[in-house]
Amino acid sequence: MPPALLQIGALHHEPQALLDARYDVRHWPGDAAARPAWLAANGAGIEGLVTTGGLGVPPGLVEALPDLRIVAINGVGFDRVDLAAMRARDIRVSNTPDVLTDDVADLAIALMLNCFRRLPAAERHVRDGVWPRGEVPLARRASGLRYGIVGLGRIGQAIARRLSGFGGSIAYSSPTRRPHLGHAYHETLVSLAQASDVLFVAAAASAATAHMIDREVIEALGPNGVLVNIARGSVVDEAALEEALRDGRLGGAGLDVFAEEPVVPEGLRELPNVALAPHVGSATHETRAAMGALVVENLDSFFGGRELLTPVV
Ligand code: DGY
């Protein structure tokens, strides 16, 4: 009998086919109200959980899976998994680092360019047939600026590599460590924001980084500044961000992540100086296929008695 898995987020179609072929994959009901009864009837015997970075391990789920031995996250972030609880039950956890780094960094640059070059407005101009009658929408130059990066891990470094072609300066602040990579280091986020035209948020979410980008940091970035967040919504004080954008105390924002996904506050959706994306940093066919393949490889290794390829716990 193949091991039984509960899957609460689909993989890309190729790795999904592998998963379906090698495991007894079960899906819980789409209707959240029906899940407790489903889990009570089907939870025993499930040894693996396949989830996404955004969903993690929802509260109460581990308790409903008495035989759970591994959680395979289809994503790099593990902020929605209670690692202490996993350790206490000796449940292993894997994620999918590295394979998504370039795509997430690309999206950060795209959001910055959208904010400065106003691509949606330019596209509307063409689609609405305004061109060549009306004035083309003038934008702001995105190159040669002062770029700040919060969190210089894998994704932060990939953003820095891309920015090195933009001809400005690069500075950073890091909540966890201080690598020496030739960029100016700022001890505080306020100091980094004051020294930046664009501030990229690339720090992992945790209790320590929650609302780290607060009102003070946002205001230090200032009325011409742009905030780009491709990390997690919880790292930014979203209410303070919306207020500053509305009042002109912050120039613009490029956001791929939000505090309560998939909810994007109406205020943010209405603002013209915001570029929005539905948490699609890793959402290319290539990367989603690679992430899914890594999920399956981790599960195969675990159930084959081998080491996890990319262990978290
Ligand atoms: C990740 O991999 O953590 C992405 O942000 C998806 O949640």
UniProtKB/TrEMBL annotation:
<keyword id="KW-0560">Oxidoreductase</keyword>
<dbReference type="Pfam" id="PF02826">
    <property type="entry name" value="2-Hacid_dh_C"/>
</dbReference>
<dbReference type="InterPro" id="IPR006139">
    <property type="entry name" value="D-isomer_2_OHA_DH_cat_dom"/>
</dbReference>
<dbReference type="Pfam" id="PF00389">
    <property type="entry name" value="2-Hacid_dh"/>
</dbReference>
<dbReference type="InterPro" id="IPR006140">
    <property type="entry name" value="D-isomer_DH_NAD-bd"/>
</dbReference>
<dbReference type="InterPro" id="IPR036291">
    <property type="entry name" value="NAD(P)-bd_dom_sf"/>
</dbReference>
<feature type="domain" description="D-isomer specific 2-hydroxyacid dehydrogenase NAD-binding">
    <location>
        <begin position="109"/>
        <end position="281"/>
    </location>
</feature>
<comment type="similarity">
    <text>Belongs to the D-isomer specific 2-hydroxyacid dehydrogenase family.</text>
</comment>
<keyword id="KW-0520">NAD</keyword>
<feature type="domain" description="D-isomer specific 2-hydroxyacid dehydrogenase catalytic">
    <location>
        <begin position="17"/>
        <end position="312"/>
    </location>
</feature>
<protein>
    <submittedName>
        <fullName>2-hydroxyacid dehydrogenase</fullName>
    </submittedName>
</protein>
<dbReference type="InterPro" id="IPR050223">
    <property type="entry name" value="D-isomer_2-hydroxyacid_DH"/>
</dbReference>
